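Thread: cytidine-5'-monophosphate complex, take 2
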Amino acid sequence: MEQLSIKAYAKINLFLNIKGIRDDGYHELEMVMQSINLYDNIKISSRKKGINIETNSDEIPTGKDNLAYKAAQRVIDESNFSKGVNIFIDKNIPVAAGLAGGSTDAAAVIKGMNKYFNLDLEKDKLHDIASQVGSDVPFCLKPGTAFATGRGDKLEYLNSLKSYKVILVKPPVMVSTKKIYEMYDKSNYNIEIPIKKLLSNIKKRNSLNIKDGWANVLEPVTKNIVKEVETIENILKNKGFDFTLMTGSGPTVFSLVEKSKKELIEKTVQNWQRKQDFITHTETI
Ligand code: C5P
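Output below.
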């Protein structure tokens, strides 16, 4: 096989709750991660020595700061791999957006190198390497619907949702996840998320209704510094997309929409007035 090509899927958070700060400085989370059909294409091939990253994007680094590089380095350190690897990242997922774009590329590199180079790393080992690279990377190893706890790396996979359409809108702003968590720690917003009820709704395959308490506790924090989040949410809600939330630390806003509203979704995306935003529609997977 000359090269291996893998799809690296983005995620949204259907809810995100913070239980507290851990001894290691990370936050103890409770969230539902949901993969969506928006993906980067990762191509892996062999080279004599070293890690070489290339990309079509001018927004991501190609050196050691790229999570895909870190992932390749961890795989090399944890296996008896003796050659080098070429990684090409064909980027479609917006960067620093709350969609796990960097994490999913890293997960694809871990899975891809294991397969392409026949490294025989077991599932637990892959998970271990993934969580060393980043909190969202373990989930990205296996797309679907999962309840994530701990740093976000303890995963209970749930039955997949009935398929929903998803609108994504990202204002032309990047946010630092680290900074948003730090600001959260200094704030005192009080959002109660009825986690048991929400999980039960997923498990029973009930229709998901925003009135049941789906929320993201980081949302007011990000809204404070990125005013566009609220503006975009209001536009989407006014169009009748009730299930509208921010994903991760933002600033991407998504609407989860019944498939029957396909035409309204397409019209909304086509006629979007804020031309500087990234906007697309996709579906849950
Ligand atoms: O794990 P990852 O490197 O992707 O996390 C990025 C940043 O987000 C961390 O440096 C930390 O500031 C914050 N974070 C956190 N608690 C988590 C996950 C991430 O505080 N559970």
